[in-house]
Hints:
This protein is of the alpha+beta class. Helices cover 18% and strands 42% of the residues. The longest helix has 19 residues.
Amino acid sequence: MDIQRILELLPHRYPFLMVDRVLEMETGKRIKALKNVTFNEPHFLGHFPGEPIMPGVLMLEALAQMGGILIRHSTDLEGELEIFFAAIDNARFRRPVKPGDQLILEGEITGRKGPFWKLRGRALVDGELAVEADLMGVIRRKKVDE
């Protein structure tokens, strides 16, 4: 899945879009995606000068967006949909992520109850675990202004 399709599924835009490409996806089961980490991303100006490191919260956001793509692609709901990040548990940061790295994002659906979806996510750099977490998202039909 290329960036054009990702833009159709997610409301995020630069500089907050954190998924560049979907590499693999099994609808309703799992996803593998890519985030290219580049030096020109605005957060590197202050995090940290002289030692740029991707903020952990943005790595988690990348996992959440990856999960949103999988959920959106896996639902049988029709019409305009919204997906919200609902919870995070068991987040662990294993190594710093720096400009020039490629984050390989992997996610697997671990549960679903009504509009709530659970996902186990992790991100790797050069095969080494950078971050892992359990995420929850909720999907609903977009409310139309009356």
